[in-house]
Specification:
The complex is a heterodimer. Chain A is mainly alpha-helical. Helix content of chain A is 80%, strand content 0%. Chain A has a single domain, classed as Orthogonal Bundle (MetI-like fold). The mean pLDDT of chain A is 93. Chain B is built from nine helices and twelve strands. In chain B, strands 8-9-10-3-11-12 form a six-stranded mixed sheet, sandwiched between helices. The termini of chain B are far apart. Classes of the chains: A mainly alpha, B alpha/beta.
């Protein structure tokens, strides 16, 4: 078997369509992980014990089980619960929730890094709890943890091929389908690796510049 | 505990009645009784670890008390009336009570991500609901008072310790509290910066009718500014009186020893 460039050009449009879904899943999953992670971090600090324990249990459970199992479970348990989400939507939600349990720990570290004096000043000024969070604590807690957060987005991007297990037409599944149809696997699979690299490496560089900016302002 | 039938109008703005507080086995306040008159400038002196700071911290609701009662402006601080009984205060009651108090901290505790103007306008806007323009006008006046009018846009990281503390004083004053608590506000400063902060405090003491509780190690300042000086030791008031009396002719041996030790250095 020799490398066939003509075949590569032929399958590239399909692979790029798959890549678009991969990127889409990563971006939406990231957005979800950012928001839900923060909510989990706040719930874990709740004064109501039942709430903080439930949030803690969720985080520990999700972190202790494989993403692939969670994907399959979320997808195949849906009929029992009477819901029917598309494979892509299911995949995005599971990715987002899975990574939210990691980002919640990152947020938590950021929040715990805020000196006690800041909380006390907010209280002495009688700031309402909501404003204490949005005006005083989070603006100081988040910038220092941006580098830790960005690492997880790259990791999530590289985890998206797992979505093929539930039939999301992302780039790896596309390559496998092409392979099965043409009995040529070398070019499609190689191109998947190349495409992943071409997206993730520049993204990593970009995120590093973003981190540097936060380091300056923080 | 039952509510007194006729809440007697009190002439004290702050009253502590048999207030106790301990951290583990350490009793920092032992059945402390203390009354402060409106507008009074009270200096609290005493050895480190004697519980002076804790008095301010329980008043600012940064620490709870174990027993006793505190009233501010005639109303109980840590309790509230509910169906004829005094029950532990909820957050709403605490927020109402805190509105009468302000505090300046030893370590300034400015918000590092906000410039000077935003530090000062933060609470007036978000707590008192002032319009931004009005809050900024108030902030500028206060900055002029503390001699930092030109620093409105500066961030705390670019200020000296003395400047930070003066901004912190302006920030606390912006809420116009009836009672201001000063917790060793010069203790974290380099010696050459102490004077600028004390002169702002002196000005506040002379020009406002704000009640001031000042925990300090600056004996000369306490002597000049205070209406009354309280010597605090081992969770209790050992001795109190007008500054002249305490500093020149104290009754207690313990007070004498303490003053001798701090004035000699």
């Amino acid at each position: 078997m020799v490398w066939d460039w003509a075949f590569v050009w032929e399958i590239l449009p399909d692979l790029l369509r798959g890549l678009r879904i991969t990127v889409q899943a990563t971006l939406l999953g990231t957005a979800l992980a950012l928001v839900v992670g923060l909510v989990l971090a706040l719930l874990r600090r709740s004064g109501i014990r039942a709430v903080s324990m439930a949030a803690g249990a969720f985080v520990e459970f999700v972190r202790s089980t494989p993403l692939l199992v969670q994907l399959l479970f979320a997808f195949f348990a849906q009929p029992i619960l009477g819901v029917r989400l598309s494979a892509l939507v299911t995949g995005i939600i599971v990715l987002g929730l899975h990574y939210a349990t990691y980002t919640s720990e990152v947020y938590r570290a950021g929040i715990e890094g805020i000196p006690r004096g800041q909380w006390e000043a907010a209280r002495a000024l009688n700031l309402p709890p909501r404003r204490t969070w949005t005006g005083v604590v989070l603006p100081q807690a988040i910038p220092p943890v941006v580098p830790a957060l960005t690492n997880y987005f790259i990791a999530m991007y590289k985890d998206t091929p797992l979505l093929l297990a539930i039939g999301v037409g992302e780039v790896l599944l596309t390559a496998r389908v092409i392979g099965s149809a043409t009995f040529r696997f070398l070019e499609p699979i190689t191109m998947v690796g190349v495409l992943f690299f071409l997206v993730s490496y520049p993204s990593a560089l970009l995120l590093r510049r973003l981190e540097a900016r936060f380091a300056r302002s923080g | 505990m039952p509510v007194p039938e006729q809440p007697t109008a009190t002439r004290w703005i702050v009253e502590l009645d048999k207030v106790s507080k301990s951290f583990g086995d350490t009793h920092v306040l032992r059945e402390l009784c203390l009354n402060v008159a409106p507008g009074e400038k009270l200096a609290i002196i005493g050895p480190s670890g004697s519980g002076k700071t804790t008095i301010l911290r329980v008043l600012m609701t940064l620490e709870t008390i174990d027993s006793g009662t505190i009233t501010v402006g005639g109303e109980p601080l840590w309790h509230m009336p509910h169906r004829g009984q005094l029950v532990p205060a909820n957050e709403k009651h605490l927020r109402k009570m805190r509105g009468q108090l302000g505090m300046v901290f030893q370590h300034f505790n400015l918000f590092p991500h906000m410039n000077v103007l935003d530090n000062i306008t933060e609470a007036p806007i978000h707590v008192q609901g002032l319009a931004k323009g009005e809050a900024q006008e108030r902030a500028r006046q206060l900055l002029a008072m503390v001699g930092l009018a030109e620093k409105v846009d500066a961030y705390p990281a670019h200020l000296s310790g003395g400047q930070k503390q003066r901004v912190a004083i302006a920030r606390a004053c912006a809420m116009r509290p009836k009672v201001m608590l000063f917790d060793e506000v010069t203790a974290a400063l380099d010696p050459e910066l102490v004077g600028e902060v004390l002169s702002v405090l002196r000005q506040l003491a002379e020009e406002t009718d704000m009640t001031m509780l000042i925990v300090t190690h600056e004996m000369r300042f306490a002597r000049e500014v205070a209406d009354r000086v309280l010597f605090f030791d081992q969770g209790q008031i050992r001795e109190e009186g007008p500054p002249e009396k305490i500093f020149t002719n104290p009754d207690h041996e313990r007070t004498r020893e303490f003053l001798k030790a701090v004035l000699e250095h």
